[in-house]
Amino acid sequence: MRASTLKDTITSLLKAGVSRSAVITGSPGGGKTSIVKQIAKDLNYQYTQRHLPTLLVEDMGVPMIDKPMLYYKLPDWFPAKGSKFDTGQPGILCFDDRNQAGNDLQKVLANLVQERELHGIPMADNWHVISTGNRQSDRAGANRILSHLSDREFEFELETHHHDWVAWASENGVRPEVISFINFKTDLLHKFDPQLDKNPTPRSWSEGVSPAIDVVPKEAEMATFKGAIGEGPASEFTGFLKIARKLPNPDAILLNPMTAEVPTDPATLYALSGSLAHRATTSNLERIVQYSERMPPEFSVLTISMALRRDKTLHNTAAFGNWVIKHHDVMF
């Protein structure tokens, strides 16, 4: 299931008050946990997260003696009724990497998601449990899931799609060179091979490659990118980055949008689309539109679409209104 559909599906279940737990599975680095965090943010829910495989069973509650009674002291992160989390505001308790947890922790989780309690202490109303996990085929240390736990959850498998990632990346500070490259080489966004030591994934692009651009020495870029996404993808991206750095000056294009040269090479056009989209503002969008209309139609759409994802205020400009009338059949 695509990230956008998955997010809408889980959001609908939460808003409808469905208490059944959900788990998102998929290859490493696909953005499973980020989706859960985004759902909580969009719904204005409280959010707390625990890395399940590094917990001990004792972390789920420690037996204490208060003569003549035995009781459990619960962890402070558990949203119990009457706790600091019980404010009336809904929340999400996320167990990350749930598939790497051993059987003992899976048994505790199975009871928690079914009975909504921990050692007899009920979870606060309007709190929901959502987990994430890799598949056994990913060779990421995932264990076989106990059948009674699996039977108590919705399971959604995340399918990476570059349009969803580009929309997210445009709103979360990922470098325009990376976004443009993924638009150019969509198959390299998430090409996971468990036999290889390094793979390109949405996480490795956004957390590994993007922050390293223009930070590490130029002679170390290939090695740095290789250490994040593997040799083949790093080589292709390094070549693309060299093209991006030799683009026509965007400022010169904005000064003379009707006469500035328009490149013909596809890689250059992808890089230029990203550069212009990154610079788009409400005051210069008209000039960017003028230039983009001289590009091949698909690159005009790409440029303006990327700009709109990055800055939604551009929707309110006359330049966008005029442009969208012309491209209505493509945009909608």
Compact summary:
The chain has 332 residues and is of the alpha/beta class. Helices cover 44% and strands 13% of the residues. The strands form three sheets. It has a five-stranded parallel β-sheet, covered by helices on one side. It has a two-stranded antiparallel ribbon with strand order 3-4.
Describe this structure in words.
44% of the residues lie in helices and 13% in strands. By secondary structure, the protein is of the alpha/beta class. The chain has two domains: 155 residues, P-loop containing nucleotide triphosphate hydrolases (Rossmann fold, 3-Layer(aba) Sandwich); 170 residues, no CATH class. The strands form three sheets. The protein has a five-stranded parallel sheet with strand order 2-5-8-1-9, covered by helices on one side. A two-stranded antiparallel ribbon has the order 3-4. The chain has a two-stranded antiparallel ribbon with strand order 6-7. Strand 3 and strand 4 form a beta hairpin. The chain is elongated. The two termini are 22 Å apart. The mean pLDDT is 90.
Strand order of the largest sheet: 2-5-8-1-9
Largest sheet: 5 strands, parallel
What is the terminal separation in angstroms?
22 Å
Q: Percent helix among the residues?
A: 40-55%
Could you outline the blueprint of secondary structure elements for this entry?
Layout: H1 3-15, E1 21-25, H2 32-43, E2 46-51, E3 62-66, E4 69-73, E5 91-96, H3 103-115, E6 117-118, E7 121-122, E8 127-133, H4 147-150, E9 153-157, H5 162-171, H6 176-184, H7 202-209, H8 221-229, H9 231-244, H10 250-255, H11 266-279, H12 285-292, H13 297-310, H14 318-326, H15 328-331
Parallel strand pairs: 1-8, 1-9, 2-5, 5-8
Antiparallel strand pairs: 3-4, 6-7
Helix pairs in contact: 1-2, 5-6, 5-13, 6-11, 7-8, 8-9, 9-11, 11-13, 12-13
